[in-house]
Write a structure and sequence with these properties.
Length: about 260
């Protein structure tokens, strides 16, 4: 899919690899000026060089770094048109029920997956309101649409992100800002390889059970999520806001609570 994002300035969090990098690459390939941001300075510099964008080291849980990143964007280009809140984490070591789930792990996940999106969106929306134009795209999860077992913090954070998306759409629509979210299903990334799809994955023995619940019979690709983000960022998208776009190969159409 090709669209014209010439003269559009975008910032993508968690863009060093995986879904974030795929989205940043796709926006750049369609003409946008893209700031690739990530907590991993070396990795994000490499990603930005590959994608033809600008690297920024950014810890999305650090308010001062968020303000510094926004200032850097404004200083260079005087605008910000697209924000993609992609940075996110989940637990690998603590796949346990809530009675055993550590508070520190809860706080860590909520800080990155929910509070950071609030902080980033708050900073970006101040810029976008002055422009009377902008797009905010949150990368959520099907875990925010239907509850998954043994992931209480991640599920709560992504459900919160979905309603934050809707609330921002209501608040910012009159300022010309569209706010939407993408809820990916099981996507092939380094993280899911460590959990399911790699031969040494923690839950590799369950991978076929997972696949059996996906009507398309396979995990998604990061590029498929990037195309969804490109659609939401497109100038032709002028009337879609407050929407949670589920991209899951049909998983939630016939959801089963085994996962």
């Amino acid at each position: 899919m090709q669209i014209n994002l010439k003269d559009q300035v975008a910032l993508v969090t968690g863009a060093a690899n995986g879904i974030g990098k795929a989205i940043a690459d796709r926006l750049a390939a369609n003409g946008a000026t893209v700031f690739y941001t990530d907590i991993d300075k070396t990795a994000v510099e490499h990603a930005a060089q590959e994608g033809g964008g600008y690297p920024l080291e950014l810890n999305v849980t650090d308010s001062a770094q968020i303000e510094s990143a926004m200032s850097a964007v404004l200083e260079r280009f005087q605008r910000l048109d697209i924000l993609v809140n992609n940075a996110g984490i989940n637990t690998m070591a603590h796949r346990v029920s809530i009675d055993e789930f550590p508070r520190a792990e809860w706080d860590r996940i909520i800080a990155v997956d929910l509070t950071a999106a609030y902080e980033m969106s708050r900073a970006a929306s101040r810029i976008m309101k002055k422009q009377r134009h902008g797009r905010i795209i949150n990368i959520s999860s099907i875990a925010g649409v239907v509850p998954l077992r043994l992931q209480c913090a991640f599920t709560a954070a992504k459900a919160g992100l979905n309603n934050l998306t809707r609330a921002m759409a209501i608040e910012l629509g009159s300022d010309g800002i569209l706010v939407n979210a993408i809820a990916p299903g099981s996507i092939m990334t380094d993280g899911t390889r460590k959990l399911f799809y790699g031969k040494d994955g923690l839950f590799h023995e369950n991978v076929q059970r997972l696949i059996d619940h996906i009507p398309l019979g396979r995990p998604g690709t990061t590029e498929e999520i990037a195309h969804a983000a490109l659609f939401l960022a497109a100038p032709e998208n002028t009337y879609l806001t407050g929407h949670i776009l589920v991209v899951d190969g049909g998983w939630t159409a016939g959801y089963h609570r085994d996962f």
